[in-house]
Amino acid sequence: MSIRTDNGGLAGAAPEASRAAEPSRTAGADRSAASPGAGGADQVQISPLSEAVAAAGTERTAKVQGLAAAYRSGGYQVDSTSLARALVHDALEAGGTESGR
Question: What are the extents of the domains in the chain?
Fold first, then answer.
């Protein structure tokens, strides 16, 4: 895994300096007490996009757990016609269609 920082092409600019104006959410601390460099405490900044991804992951996990419970209880029924149509549609979308066949 690699981490990439973008300093906007400015030589010598630290990523922390460019983020100083951004609002931050600090894990496990009050916002009013979370100032950059205060007492050498570590800080975590979470962007709105990462919050949305985390929320979507939570929703998906809940859905998967519900489906797993339905499957275990024997209550999960698959509409084979809809499944076949979806598989063919996805395959055509992913691979495209060739003309001249």
Answer: 43-73
